[in-house]
């Protein structure tokens, strides 16, 4: 079947390895991707995050030695590559045989490939930015950001009891809620640099809880979903 639509998806490391590797999540993800590629002709590009694996290595290294931001970032990057290799392996019968790191490499993958696995590239940016860059190169208009929360909130709900869930917001308003600069240890629903680039490119981002595959399926099929839609500023 011809690939009719390209979907770029950033899968948070908190879903892949919340503590131990979450095989139930991986089984659910594989089932959904297999169904969507076979039944709807969609092409997926999945980029893996580092999550707790990255933080454990970063914290351990920082305990022993004084690190530069670049040192910390490299540890996080290699965690994304480990998680990415895990995804490529479980999708052995569907995924393109090589995991990509440089976003430009996506242009070398044959169009017939229905699933591409990607991971972090170089220090100075998160996998969120790489997802937006890949979407730009492939002319994908939507990026899905899978995490372990249902929505983006007006503030960190773990710190602010007044934080409220956001169902829909434009980039201009969203960027006022997050820091302006990227940092390897930053906790933000979407990388500030990636947010700026997505706004510039007119790309929509949907933040969805990866534990709720029905919500992801609803979004893919233009059905109201549980999650946050961050839309281009020009949309009403």
Q: Would you give an account of this structure?
A:
The structure is a single chain. The chain is α/β, with parallel strands linked by helices. The chain has one domain (5-231): Carbamate kinase. Helices cover 39% and strands 17% of the residues. It contains eight helices and nine strands. The strands form two sheets. A seven-stranded mixed sheet has the order 3-2-1-4-8-9-7, with helices on both faces. A two-stranded antiparallel ribbon has the order 5-6. The longest helix is centred in the middle third of the chain and has 22 residues, at 69-90.
Helix-strand pattern: EHHEHHEHEEEEHHEHE
In whole angstroms, the N-to-C terminal distance is 34 Å
Number of domains: 1
Largest sheet: 7 strands, mixed
The SS-based structural class is: alpha/beta
The coarse overall form would be globular
pLDDT averaged residue by residue: 90
- Number of DSSP helices? 8
Total number of beta strands: 9
Oligomer: single chain
Write out the CATH superfamily name. Answer: Acetylglutamate kinase-like
Low confidence ranges: none
